[in-house]
Specification:
Layout: H1 2-18, E1 27-34, E2 42-53, E3 72-75, E4 89-92, E5 95-96, E6 99-100, H2 101-105, E7 109-114, H3 124-148
Antiparallel strand pairs: 1-2, 2-7, 3-4, 5-6
Length: 153
């Protein structure tokens, strides 16, 4: 019994030493603007990265070189000069799909978006014609039932 307890304590201590505790990652704040008018088939949309909120425990370190962990990235303000979150400090940034998430996604960018076209498919005339056809079909079905002698309630 003592061996089991000692073994469990050893495993618990080993797991605590092996698993690194990472701080909470930052949050990217951005604004979005989309041109209301479509020139041709496309409209400009612009994401402007305004800041990265770094939580307590992830305020950043000015150490060099890399703190020997690929989860920490130097947020160099030469890369994104308008974003105050790029503060020339090392921050924890989780790796998602093989890339440091905040570092690669919290960037200002402009993209072209395909404009939706208004298709004049269902206007007031189409509504009147469709309603008339539905009434006509039900009228024909009703008259067929009546001519066969089937009672309708």
């Amino acid at each position: 019994m003592e061996r089991l307890i000692l073994s469990l304590c050893f495993v618990f201590l080993l797991l605590n030493f092996v698993s690194a505790e990472y701080p909470e990652p930052g949050k990217c704040l951005f604004s979005l603007s989309i041109d209301a008018e479509c020139e041709g088939d496309y409209s400009n949309s612009m994401w402007t990265a305004e800041n990265i909120e770094w939580p307590l425990g992830n305020e950043g370190w000015e150490i060099s070189p890399n703190p020997d962990d690929s989860h920490y990235v130097l947020f160099d303000n030469l890369i994104e000069p308008g974003n105050p979150g790029f503060d020339n400090k090392w921050h924890y940034d989780p790796i998602i799909n093989g890339k440091n998430y905040i570092f690669t996604t919290c960037r200002s960018t402009t993209q072209l978006i395909l404009c939706s076209r208004k298709v004049p498919f269902f206007g007031i005339y189409n509504l009147v014609i469709s309603s008339s056809l539905i009434v006509l079909i039900y009228l024909v079905l009703f008259l067929k039932k009546r001519s066969r002698g089937v009672k309708t309630e």
